[in-house]
Amino acid sequence: MPFNVVGMIEDRIGVKPSGLNRVFRISLKQLLVGILVIVVASASFLWVSDRIETHKRWASMIEVSQQFMVHFSEVYVRLPSITENETANPTHFWFLDELDYAEWSINQLIALDSAHASELFRIEDLIWILRDSGIAGIRLDDSQFLNLSNIINNIAQKLPQAYWNPLNTTVVDGETGPPFCYFGPSPPDEALLQQIDTLAIQAEKIINPSA
Questions:
Q1: Rounded to the nearest 5 degrees, what angle is found at the Cα of 120, between the Cα atoms of 179 and 75?
Q2: Contact of 151 with 130, CB cutoff 8 Å
């Protein structure tokens, strides 16, 4: 009888640790899986959030560059007033107003795309020079005037082209941008932006050859 009691005790002692080990192993696996799920979910959330914000910023760049095009195209249309010192001429005031709107757009674009601020500041410099020239009045011969007109029109058209690519956008409203699966190059097209920078320098030299 004593032998049986001891055997039963031994059996119980042997079974009990085994059950604890089994429960511990299951709990540890569940814990590791839970931690892994949390880490993956957190990383995915951060990646998705960053992707959404990046696309919104790209869309805003496109929108603002198109606003610049609208106003700088009007500068091109109103350019004849730059050669006249007629402050009572409505065209003169419209010319200066459109320059202000174009400058506002460039400042917005600089805030969105600080990595290319130096190129965008060149356009802003041209706006300031055009504003000063529009206030003071300048003299340009026909060839200079034609060249300046063409340059202003080219800058107006090229800037939104630098920030827009049919491959990286679907809707442009400042809120939505490229398809979520898009992994191509981010705007702007730096080669095109460099062309705009060169055009702005050429325009400045036409207005102020001694600069």
A1: 100
A2: no
- pLDDT greater at residue 59 or residue 108: 108
CB 123 within 8 A of CB 155: yes
Confidence of residue 69 (pLDDT cuts 50, 70, 90): very high
Residue 6 clears pLDDT 50, i.e. is over it:
no
For 190, residues 6+ apart whose C-beta sits below 8 A from its C-beta are: 116
- In the chain, domain spans: 58-207
Amino acid at 105: S
Burial 178-188 (b: 16+ CB within 10 A, else e): beeebeeebbb
